[in-house]
Specification:
The protein is of the alpha+beta class. Among the domains are: 149 residues, Immunoglobulin-like (Sandwich), CATH 2.60.40.420; 99 residues, Cytochrome Bc1 Complex, Chain D, domain 2 (Orthogonal Bundle), CATH 1.10.760. 43% of the residues lie in helices and 15% in strands. The protein is built from eleven helices and ten strands. It is elongated and about 100 Å long. The chain starts with a helix and ends with a helix. 27% of the residues are buried.
């Protein structure tokens, strides 16, 4: 009986093992330059002086602590074994030893000081954001990043960076089969900076606490609503570098990547020129009167890029996120109600303010929601209405 039972079970086990191996191979990914590595155990060496010094300090401290750990426990276990009762040793009976107490106080104190000095030097350097060549404000939103170039080459540029839609769709489908090495790290608009340039990053947030972090740069700075914090980096190597929001910020926290593209000086200048031309081309005539089909086409794109993450593509919302399909505010003929919500947010930031969008984009997305799904109102919102409401 046992033999027959084993003969039946073994093929099934082999089939399961083969299936697991095949599944693992199908999901195999490679190291991502500028991002995480497969089976990475240590900090990345990094492409900034700060990151390299952090890596060096981490390694030195780890070795030092390991040596102390081994030495202390080696002496302890040797003493326990060598002076055990079974070989005739008796416990010593003494009250105190000033020499021993001085040694175990002074030696650790010296070790801590020697560890603190280089660590303090690096920490102070991390906080020195003076004399920056380029200043960028980074704003955390649920669940995207806003980049505003405040000072230096590129001053005046502003854009939103969101997870690439194809990666989100792949994740929603269960990420079956082959996945790209930069899975859930690809964005539509990466942050672009020049190489060998001191870049000051000013962080804040629009809704909840986020954290801007790029391990290859050795930077991590909280982005807190109502507060301004800053950090800096100077990338010494051209390339693509990745990070993620490192502060739990809601249900879409995993879909908030950071992609920083470091370019040579000439390439960065060309990128800035291209972005300025792109922005100029997108400038809308404030006096233009849009048709309903034009607004619907544009609004659908704005909604997909900025609203669908919370309100869902079908407008039904999810959990505490209210649906737009059938919403009384959306269906109301008084456009000011919905415009006020979009421009100013509501529920203490649960619905963020979207003042950073242009008047035309806001008019387009409001028009889209008033006519999408079952909301067939036929209502059309013009940019002039948004401009009037924005000024209040």
């Amino acid at each position: 009986m046992k033999s027959n039972w084993r003969n039946k079970i073994w093929p099934a086990n082999l089939l399961l093992a083969a299936s697991a191996a095949f599944s693992g191979a199908a999901h195999a990914v490679n190291d991502l330059p500028g991002g995480p590595s497969v089976r990475q155990l240590n900090l990345p060496v990094g492409v900034t002086k700060i990151a390299q010094e952090q890596h060096f300090l981490h390694t030195v401290m780890l070795v030092l602590c390991t040596v102390i750990f081994v030495a202390v426990f080696a002496v302890m276990f040797y003493s326990i074994w060598k002076h055990r009762k079974s070989v005739g040793h008796k416990a010593a009976n003494f009250h105190e030893s000033v020499v021993v107490e001085v040694i175990w106080t002074v030696v650790p104190f010296i070790i801590v000081i020697l560890m603190a000095l280089p660590a303090t030097r690096v920490l102070v350097a991390q906080k020195d954001t003076t004399n920056a060549d380029l200043t960028i404000k980074v704003t955390g939103y649920q669940w995207k990043w806003g980049y505003d170039y405040l000072k230096g080459e590129g001053e005046g540029l502003s854009f939103i960076s969101t997870l690439d839609a194809s990666h989100r769709a792949l994740s929603d489908a269960g990420a079956r089969g082959d996945v790209p090495d930069n899975f859930l790290l690809k964005v539509d608009n990466p942050l672009v900076v020049p190489v060998d340039t001191k870049v000051r990053i000013i962080t804040t947030a629009n809704d909840v606490i986020h954290a801007f972090a790029v391990p290859q740069f050795g930077v991590k700075q909280d982005a807190i609503p109502g507060f301004v914090r800053d950090t800096w980096f100077r990338a010494e190597k051209v390339g693509d570098y990745y990070g993620q929001c490192q502060e739990l910020c809601g249900k879409e926290h995993a879909y908030m990547p950071i992609h920083v593209k470091v370019l040579a000086a000439a390439d960065y200048t060309a990128w800035v020129d291209g972005k300025r031309k792109e922005a100029a081309a997108k400038q809308d005539d404030p006096n233009k009167v849009w048709t309903l089909p034009e607004m619907l086409a544009r609004g659908e794109k704005v909604y997909a890029a900025n609203c669908a993450a919370c309100h869902q593509a079908n407008g039904k919302g999810a959990g505490p996120i209210k649906p737009l399909d059938g919403s009384a505010t959306v269906l109301n003929a008084d456009h000011k109600l919905q415009l006020h919500t979009v421009l100013n947010g509501q529920n203490n930031g649960a619905m963020p303010a979207w003042k950073q969008l242009s008047d035309t984009d806001i008019a387009a997305v409001v028009t889209f929601t008033k006519n999408a799904w079952s909301n067939k109102t036929g209502q059309l919102v013009q940019p002039a209405e948004v401009l009037a409401e924005r000024g209040k």
